[in-house]
Amino acid sequence: MIANLKTLKKVSAAAPRRAWVVAATLLIVGCQAYEPKPLDPQANAIHFGKRRLDDPQVRSSLAASGSWSNERGWPPSPWKLRELQGAALFYHPEIAVAKAKAATARAAIVTADTTPNPTFSFGPERGNPGDGVNPWVLGFSLDYQVETANKRGDRTAQAQAQANAAALSIADTAWTVSSGVRAALLELESATQRLEVLEAQRKNDDATVSMVAERIKAGEAPRTDLAVYQTQQCHDLLDLADGRSKLDATRAKLADAVGVSAVSIRGTAVSFGPLDHLPEIPSERSLRKTALIRRSDVLGALEDYAAADAALRLEVAKQVPDLHLNPGYTFDQGQLKWAIGLGLTLPIDRNAGPIREAIAKRDEAAAVFDRLQIGIRGELDQSLASYQADRQRLAEVESLVGSLTRQLADAERLSKAGEGDRLAVNTAESLVLQARLARIDALTQAQQSLGRLQDSARISIDEH
After folding, report:
1. What is the count of structural domains for the chain?
2. For a pLDDT cut of 90, what percent of the chain falls above it?
3. Average pLDDT of the residues of the chain
4. Residues 257 and 187: beta-carbon distance below 8 Å
């Protein structure tokens, strides 16, 4: 800066016009150029449509995260839950938004840690030319702000806490995205298994209606019996149609959860795994400790409070005046004049308003944290109760399936021995199929409760 002042002094005495050029040059040097980066909606839509699960970049991402092993071959067949979750973490737009916000927060740290730029003032004047006297009056001054009371440190601490909260938000978003994939894949698996049972039910209904129709034709049964079985057949056919349409809808839902188009996963084999895999959960104390202390959103709320506390410290520090150094130089019609000034920011109101606002914001951050923990506690209690109740209901449904299956076996044995008829076998089989549908529903509900329990604690219980 001293060299710059000497340069301005020389050119001011020699050629006033050149002083303007040099001053502008000194201000422009080191500036970054604007780089346009327009958004093209059409190109963006085309790019989204080209996303595929078997993309080499997805393969590299899954391998790096440990979500896929080379032993399974590429692409996986079927795609399992962990692999689909890894693909979602690569593709899902919410992850990209969370990462972008974290990058913005990290950039804000640099801004917060930067000292204030000096202010440069330049005011040329031209007087009446005298005999041999330069008519120009050229002067400039600088204003250096010297921050006191660790204001820059408090400002940087606030930005760092906000960046930490944004980084934790990535982890929380990743869990939410992964949970969405699990829920969608579970729904697809349930719809697939239900459709298989409904197809078997349709075949059994067709055989039963045909059998009753033959009996009526032979005069062995009243015509009213056929209406009963046809009504059940129509009901099951409607369920079958609903099941087929739901299968397409759930596959599209899974694609959305992963972050790809529905077309891109059409025909792709996927598997949730066995629905009856319901692990034993950790102790309630362990779950509660994990949920209330270690969840990423809890840690993020703590960082938000730390940022609010740093903001309060900054406002309190602003009660201490900053120093302003004001060196100046003037070329006054041939005479060189130097000046130096010292100024203070006078907080006459002792920064009372911003301090009260910062206190209120810190109290607000504390209230938000309390609300989050209380909400997590209630969420955990409800999910634990639901999981235990659904496990009990599943046990009752499985007991019913076992009982009806034994009755079907007895009916088949009697039919083969000539002591029973085939209609009784078909009727028993229909009851078993209905019980199997109830079992699939009970398993799905239990798996959904397990998912909510995992969400409340932010842990994968299968890994414990």
Report:
1. 1
2. 71
3. 89
4. no
